[in-house]
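Two records follow; treat each independently.
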Amino acid sequence: MNSKYLKQTILLLFGLVLLTTFGCNKKLDTAVASAEASVNMWQSYDDARNGLVAIYGLSRAALADNNGHWLYGDLRKGDFVATSSGNYLDAIIKNELNKGFPQIKKLTNWRRFYAAIDACNTFIENAQRCKADLRYSDLNCTVDIAQAHMLRSFLYFYMVRIWGDVPLITKATKNGETIQVARSPQDQVMDYCIRELRQYKDSLPTEYGGDDKSKLNYDGNYYGQAWSNWGNAFWGYYQCLGLLAQMYAWTGDYAAVLTTTTEIFNNAAAARTGLISYTNSRGYLAGRNSIFYSNGIKGNLCYQMISFPYNMSNRESGPSGVGHIESLTLASPYMVRAKPDIYVPRDTIARWFHYFGDVRHPYQSEFGNYEEIYFSNYFGNIPVFTKFKNIETGSSNFPIFGSCIPIFRWEDNLLLMAEANYALGDMRAAFDRLNDVREPRNSPGFFYGRISAVRPGFTLQPTEASMEGGILYNIFRERRVELAGEGSWWYDQVRYNRLARNNAEFNKLLDEGGIYWPIDQDIIDKNPLIEQNSYWKR
């Protein structure tokens, strides 16, 4: 888009984010602010584009705020340790979510999610009006509205994993009205989200600004830009399938998980994504040129299958590093501070790996030294998690981070397939999919040796250590390592323990609702229909 339109889009998004931040007390009891259509909005092609960018921006802001994506998804009973004992990060790690830290209080408030949902509702209800501008075609409008439905479903799914039952609101607010809505059972919310995604997935192209492989045939530039600029910044058909796979896994519908992940698996070319190869593992999994930088495009592929990227060509970055895991995990020499906020202890790192030759292991046997791939300062008091170190060159005094908020990628899909195969009793297929991920990381296989199809002379041989704990444990062990720092480990633990039921402490959390967060008391005080999660009433 040209500079005039870019400025308009940024100003609109900035205004909506300000509304989210400062308008909390005058709007919904279940929402933070209204994205109410203004007199001059919803009249043109440009209005539609700006409205679409705004709903992506507000969705990204909901996850980025207070680094919530990682504090919700990676910290609770996870591998990270707070460098300062007794602070709010330490409390989250220990699942002490009723401690009176202001940072935790902000995380227990769902208003920013409802700001994004209200923006989606507003877009769905008003985008058709933009067709008065003949540049805004029926197909363009159909595709954009489908994206708004998809984002809304994603946001509800994200909230269900955090709070369980949540109010289900599908109409835009009007004139700043106050709405008091009770929580809907999470099963009903998930059913609604899944129905929405299934209904609208065929209204989405396989890519934007390129060669669409869907029945829509939506080829050519999208809002004036090619796929090489957009990557997966806008979500399409295969992003919709990725979300469906995650939702099915959360609800325990493993037959649907397998069907959905298999469709993705069989269509890598159409999805323009794929497995990070052995050759590319060191460069693509970590560092300044990793797949997590900016839009994640490497050649003709976008390895961030689903994410909220920051466009570094436009110098996008979260304020003061918020919305980037680096602001929690990095320290000197990458930025000016002596120690990170959180780190992974050496004994935990040792439990992650069962082979020194794993390309993600701190010690790289191929080179006979310690490489800064997943970790640096390995033998210091505090190892630094450097899988994410996407920093603009020369910006250590005032870091400008470039990493995305990662949601889903090819390796995630493979491991979801393995999980589904296990749940459905197809153990050989589960071994295969697990080994598909282990092979390019130079990690020993599970159960059987397999000759590599892409690495001449290499055979993926199992070892006693690589099979320890059984197939289910190893599927999730691989998720723990491969997807480290991507905001999924807590949800993975929930799914693992639902299947395994071999951890009495975690079973208690599952049975008593302790897997969910408490709800901010401000929400409850303003809406008598909202009741606190039972686990946190004590």
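The next record belongs to a different protein.
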Amino acid sequence: MARFRWGAVLIIVVVAGVALISKRQSALPVVDVLQPVTRNVIRTLAVTGQVEAISSANISTQINGILVKRVLVDKGNRVKKGQPLIELDDRELQALTAKSAAQVKQTEASLLRAKAQMEGSGRSVSLANEALTDSLDLKNQRDNMATNVKTAKERVAQSREALARTREGAKRQAVRSAGANLRRAESQLRFQVLALNRAESLFRQGAISQEARDLARTNHEIALEAVNSAREDMSQLSEPRTEDVRQAEAVLREAEATVQGAETMLSNSEKAYRNRTNLRLNLSVSQTERSVNRAAYLNAQADLQRAYADAEQTKAQLSRTILFSPVEGVVTDRQVEPGETVSSGKTLLSIVEPRNLRVRADVDETNLKDIALGQEALLRPDALPDLKIRAKIDEIMPSANIERGTVEVRLKLNEAPDKLLPHLTIDVNIITGVYDKARTIPRASVLNPDANPTVFVVESGVVKLKTIQITGGDAGQVVALKGLSESDKVVVNPRAVKEGAKVEPRLTPQEKP
């Protein structure tokens, strides 16, 4: 009986302890947690765009204040490229064109006259230059004539001296030389006379042979002949020959005649050279005329160029009196009627090709890093919410809008629906990322999602801080690239707990967006 009582007491104590522990556990704060959802995520960048026609044109005239003659199309008409659209009144331009053509012909004639005058004055300058050059040759001739006169006079003087020498006889030096030769010959003769007399005496005595005596006689004869020759040379030097005098006089007369001719030529050269002053004046006048005529020719050339330009401008204006369609499309607007006077630049017709459209959108410059050529986009017009269109980024403009801080992108439609019209506003969702089997959590459960993102997870009833790597997702979700597993219990409201706290996690199912 006592054992029974002690067993009952023990059971009561155990039950009371369990109840106490359970009561203590239920006293922990309850925290809502969720587990990452694994799914395929498409990340998009939402912007607003506008539909525009690639092939479009506003038709206007470049001629100011011209009358409209005919309008050949109406609103809603389909036109081809190069088709006439509007005819303008060309009567005034026709008259201006004829006047410009006449002005061109008149200016061409003036240019020909100016050219002929310029070329004529150029020839005058050439002739004056040649004459002046010839006058320089006359100066050289004059100097040469003066030299010739001087040379001729010197020759006359020399001829007179030669004649004087001829008349006075041989030069004194020649006389002295001839006298010395005579004296030597006479001395030799006297010696040979003595030698001959001695040889004759010895021969008579038989002291020498006849050959020796004959040799003495031969030497005597040679000495005698030398004396006679020296005396003849002496005689010729002392008395000039009549023939030599006549020759010297002839040379003198020739030299004097040369002087007279050279002086006459020198006088003529002096007169011709003095005319150089008039030649210089003629050259100066010709050069002035040439400069004036050249300036007139250049002015005529400029006038002709202006006349050509005016004629071309008038002709171009005349060619613009018929306005043609630069594109193929449909006339969407008409703002002109026949008989109206229109100004340049005013839009008269608008043409659009509705089957050739694109979308233009402005992307905030901070999102420029997320877009690239070829990225796909999903489009939905505001006016046609049930219409879904696919497109790709075809162009990214190379400069940003400074005032709005945006960059223009152009999207090429995969296919343009018939209901899609130019100028419609359209929602553009550019696909910036596609993640297969990605783990997603609400963005609200992430601390510092834009820099060093972290989350609170509950492990064994304790709150712990985890660093993760995320990227943008969709519908308020983020994609956890690193740091989370499928079994992690992520605190839904991280600002309601602290790291290290003991909590009771309550799993909240996460609905797929």
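Discussion point: The longest helix spans residues 91-168. How would you locate this feature using only the token line?
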